[in-house]
């Protein structure tokens, strides 16, 4: 363990030593530790601690999958303050896919070894409940080996409202139709102090946790997310992680944690409307703040095996750097992530093919491992040159 320096780092040197000792001893960090980590401005120190934890848990492997995102509709009854994706019925750019359209889009990647469809939608005010299991059945019929990772807990609660069924009954029917996992969305920030200002729907911590608890009890393994970098403070991020960690202690059902960077709408939607109502008083988290968030998340989550950088929301350079700050999961090929690309025109690629992901991971000095939705290994990829040699040579800089 490297000796702690005496220079000012935003955290008392004695406190640093206490946290270091707990990390290297494998002890669980508490809420105060999490807040102290966020108070530190020593990014190298945070990265070193998080990388130690990441290597202890997952070695130098970086997992990814070959997936695509499908957003069946952007029509939404809610108007969350941060969201530029949603449209109201009849608005320009509002759309709802017919089931045949969804199947056609899904089949576009059939020849690329697709293993997962990631399906998230607006809370459509008039689509009947039966539309959703029917979509899953049709998709599963044409892509039987592809896992359907679909719907946020917020959507499941919406299904309760429009169907009159319980979440227990809804999940049973969706699983019967082919559901393999829920998505992790709808979490945003759980603390009501923040949540009441950013969320415009009825699914809060109590229902979000209830629905994931039910899903885990039925054998589903799900991700969990956190939307950071808007109006929340570090203590809210720590609280968010603590709630999820306690739920994971109970169910063991979360496979990965995904910090999602809030997107400030420098360029808004094509119709010129500014739907992001907190835009005027927010920016975006800097790369350094993103790396700190990854590192603290990895250090706090001693019971969730993976931490993911969703490269679409962070950029490819930050994604590579994140692999040294606790991250061991780079999501997948994605393809057409409309929630970011249509709403915010953020400057990441629309698609990363398998070879692109392999190159990105190799160039960061790690070993790529292709996984499925349950984080079972599909294939391990040999390094094209010895890792030590690759790290010693200049590699591509990703924009």
TrEMBL record:
<feature type="binding site">
    <location>
        <position position="80"/>
    </location>
    <ligand>
        <name>[4Fe-4S] cluster</name>
    </ligand>
</feature>
<dbReference type="GO" id="GO:0051539">
    <property type="term" value="F:4 iron, 4 sulfur cluster binding"/>
</dbReference>
<dbReference type="GO" id="GO:0016765">
    <property type="term" value="F:transferase activity, transferring alkyl or aryl (other than methyl) groups"/>
</dbReference>
<dbReference type="Pfam" id="PF19288">
    <property type="entry name" value="CofH_C"/>
</dbReference>
<dbReference type="InterPro" id="IPR022432">
    <property type="entry name" value="MqnE"/>
</dbReference>
<feature type="domain" description="Radical SAM core">
    <location>
        <begin position="62"/>
        <end position="295"/>
    </location>
</feature>
<dbReference type="InterPro" id="IPR007197">
    <property type="entry name" value="rSAM"/>
</dbReference>
<dbReference type="InterPro" id="IPR013785">
    <property type="entry name" value="Aldolase_TIM"/>
</dbReference>
<feature type="binding site">
    <location>
        <position position="83"/>
    </location>
    <ligand>
        <name>[4Fe-4S] cluster</name>
    </ligand>
</feature>
<keyword id="KW-0408">Iron</keyword>
<feature type="binding site">
    <location>
        <position position="76"/>
    </location>
    <ligand>
        <name>[4Fe-4S] cluster</name>
    </ligand>
</feature>
<dbReference type="InterPro" id="IPR045567">
    <property type="entry name" value="CofH/MnqC-like_C"/>
</dbReference>
<dbReference type="Pfam" id="PF04055">
    <property type="entry name" value="Radical_SAM"/>
</dbReference>
<keyword id="KW-0949">S-adenosyl-L-methionine</keyword>
<keyword id="KW-0411">Iron-sulfur</keyword>
<dbReference type="GO" id="GO:0044689">
    <property type="term" value="F:7,8-didemethyl-8-hydroxy-5-deazariboflavin synthase activity"/>
</dbReference>
<protein>
    <submittedName>
        <fullName>Aminodeoxyfutalosine synthase</fullName>
    </submittedName>
</protein>
<dbReference type="GO" id="GO:0009234">
    <property type="term" value="P:menaquinone biosynthetic process"/>
</dbReference>
<keyword id="KW-0479">Metal-binding</keyword>
<dbReference type="GO" id="GO:0046872">
    <property type="term" value="F:metal ion binding"/>
</dbReference>
<dbReference type="InterPro" id="IPR058240">
    <property type="entry name" value="rSAM_sf"/>
</dbReference>
<dbReference type="InterPro" id="IPR034405">
    <property type="entry name" value="F420"/>
</dbReference>
<keyword id="KW-0004">4Fe-4S</keyword>
<feature type="binding site">
    <location>
        <position position="188"/>
    </location>
    <ligand>
        <name>S-adenosyl-L-methionine</name>
    </ligand>
</feature>
<dbReference type="InterPro" id="IPR020050">
    <property type="entry name" value="FO_synthase_su2"/>
</dbReference>
